[in-house]
């Protein structure tokens, strides 16, 4: 979908008007192109005294082929700033964050990346450390609103013992693949295992894997299917009968397979399970992307609008997941990935049904994450405003507000959601379990 405002804001006259009227000035975000290095530039790595993660982080970056600096000289410019804050034990120690960032924050290049590594507050040794580690969330979310020029800031909670399981996460958060992800708190090793497989073939990390994607024929689902196929997976796309020809054309292009079924039909979980059992003896990645909106204020809500939204967005993912797990079809180191929404976090006018269904997807992650074994994980993305046919239907004024009300002053693209899902899907993301990561450009809603 086209964003005419962003186009006009980049013309010479548009720049003049934007500057003089103080209008939002959406930067052009860098996005990943095949064959690019993980980071196009140098990453400065620093630590508070006594930090336990910086060493592993520097080693990880070198393994990823990223140029690492341990100190900054006058005139240096950085594509990334990584700070290990795990040594911070008291609120007085928090000064270490200011001392590291203040001198270098201006040397961050456009579309730069800031990552703060920390201890999950609930795993802190005492109350003082818990307070100080929790405080870092306010720091990263505020810095996210300051960095500008397409840069992003994240907080990564690394459980003790999970220091060497951060590779796929650092690779994602430092690269252009995370273009529209900002001000997120990611947890590594806090639920399930603290260990992870190494990131071996970074061009095709999913080679040999089978990925089921519901709602695959258009919008975000199409982008997920294309991205997982790019990363080497065999994609099994699912969509409703009216979308059969679009689905078949895409799956033929990607060398994948189609299952044409309405996921709310009574036998859908069994049909999907039978397909992956017969053709592949199992499945590695399950992406519950299919979703619908039936917006109405609650006072005007019809029973069907409520029921169908809950059925597609929540009950179907629950039933399909349960069937695949029950039949032991999700292979070791498998991935279950939900698609929630910021409406499920912040709520949204006219979306009591949708917000309920999407908060339920987050509940599914919470409920399943501690119960999974053999390296299987469950996570969800919560997209903000993404440019698709779904959002093109929103009335103009609301649509324009939705696009601009975030730190990047623009809507995201389906590829931004797909790249986040590809990070969850990576075999090296075994310690990334129980997360809900917003792909929303640090939306002002429900921050
Ligand atoms: N676009 C956004 O801004 C946005 C924001 C937050 C969350 N999301 C979520 O992302 C997902 C994809 O959204 P989109 O914008 O690409 O939507 P879309 O309407 O463009 O695509 C949804 C796909 O799901 C399929 N589908 C719908 N009902 C189905 C059913 N019963 N059985 C099988 N397939 C079914 C549709 O045919 C379609 O191909 C949805 O879960 C949506 O709620 C989107």
Could you outline the blueprint of secondary structure elements for this entry?
Elements lengths: L3 H6 L2 H10 L20 E6 L6 H10 L3 E3 L8 E7 L10 H10 L3 E11 L8 H20 L5 E7 L8 H8 L9 E5 L21 E5 L4 H12 L3 E6 L4 H11 L2 E4 L7 H13 L2 E6 L14 H24 L3 E10 L3 H4 L5 H17 L8 E7 L5 H4 L3 H9 L9 H12 L10 E4 L8
Parallel strand pairs: 1-2, 1-3, 3-4, 4-5, 5-6, 7-8, 7-10, 8-9, 10-11, 11-12, 12-13
Helix pairs in contact: 7-15, 9-10, 10-12
The structure holds nicotinamide-adenine-dinucleotide (NAD).
Key phrases:
single chain; 447 residues; alpha/beta; Rossmann fold; 2 domains; seven-stranded parallel β-sheet; six-stranded parallel β-sheet; 18% strand; globular; binds nicotinamide-adenine-dinucleotide
Characterize the overall form. globular
**What is the chain-wise order of helices and strands?**
HHEHEEHEHEHEEHEHEHEHEHHEHHHE
Counted up, domains total 2
Provide the residue-averaged pLDDT: 94
- What share of residues is helical? 25-40%
Q: pLDDT below 50 for ≥5 consecutive residues: which ranges?
A: none
Which radius of gyration do the C-alpha atoms yield? 22 Å
Total helices: the number is: 15
CATH superfamily of the largest domain: NAD(P)-binding Rossmann-like Domain
């Amino acid at each position: 979908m086209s964003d005419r405002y962003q186009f006009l804001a980049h013309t010479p006259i548009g720049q003049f008007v934007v500057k003089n009227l103080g209008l939002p000035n959406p930067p052009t975000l860098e996005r990943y192109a095949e064959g690019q290095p993980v980071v196009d530039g140098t990453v400065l790595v620093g630590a508070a005294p006594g930090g336990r993660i910086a060493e592993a982080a520097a080693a990880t970056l070198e393994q990823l082929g990223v140029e690492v600096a341990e100190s900054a000289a006058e005139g240096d410019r950085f594509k990334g700033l990584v700070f290990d804050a795990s040594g911070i034990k008291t609120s007085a120690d928090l000064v270490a964050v200011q001392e590291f960032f203040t001198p270098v924050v201006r040397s961050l290049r456009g579309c730069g990346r800031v990552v703060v590594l920390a201890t999950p507050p609930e795993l802190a040794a005492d109350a003082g450390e818990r307070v100080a580690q929790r405080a870092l969330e306010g720091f990263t979310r505020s810095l996210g609103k300051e960095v500008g020029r397409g840069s992003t800031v994240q907080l990564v909670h690394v459980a003790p013992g999970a220091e060497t399981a951060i590779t796929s996460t650092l690779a994602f958060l430092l690269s252009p693949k995370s273009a529209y992800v900002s001000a997120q708190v990611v947890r590594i090793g806090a639920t399930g295992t603290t260990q992870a497989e190494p990131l071996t073939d970074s061009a095709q990390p999913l080679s040999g894997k089978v990925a089921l994607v519901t709602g695959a024929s258009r919008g975000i689902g199409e982008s997920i299917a294309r991205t997982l196929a790019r990363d080497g997976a065999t994609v099994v796309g699912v969509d409703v009968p009216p979308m059969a020809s679009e689905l078949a054309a895409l799956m033929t292009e990607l060398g994948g397979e189609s299952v044409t079924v309405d996921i709310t039909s009574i036998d859908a979980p069994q049909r999907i399970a039978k397909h992956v059992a017969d053709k592949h003896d199992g499945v590695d990645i399950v992406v519950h992307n299919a979703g619908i909106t039936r917006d109405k204020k609650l006072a005007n809500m019809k029973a069907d609008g409520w029921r169908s939204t809950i059925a597609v967005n929540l009950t179907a993912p629950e039933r399909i997941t349960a069937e695949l797990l029950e039949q032991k079809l999700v292979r070791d180191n498998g991935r279950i990935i939900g698609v929630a929404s910021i409406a499920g976090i912040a709520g949204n006018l006219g979306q009591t049904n949708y917000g309920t269904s999407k908060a339920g997807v987050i509940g599914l992650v919470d409920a399943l994450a501690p119960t999974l074994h053999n390296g299987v994980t469950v996570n969800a993305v919560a997209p903000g405003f993404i440019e698709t046919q779904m959002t093109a239907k929103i009335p103009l004024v609301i649509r324009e507000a939705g696009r601009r009300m975030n730190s990047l002053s623009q809507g995201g693209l389906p590829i931004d959601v797909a790249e986040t899902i590809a990070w969850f899907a990576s075999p090296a993301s075994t310690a990334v379990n129980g997360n809900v990561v917003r792909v929303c450009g640090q939306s002002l809603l429900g921050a």
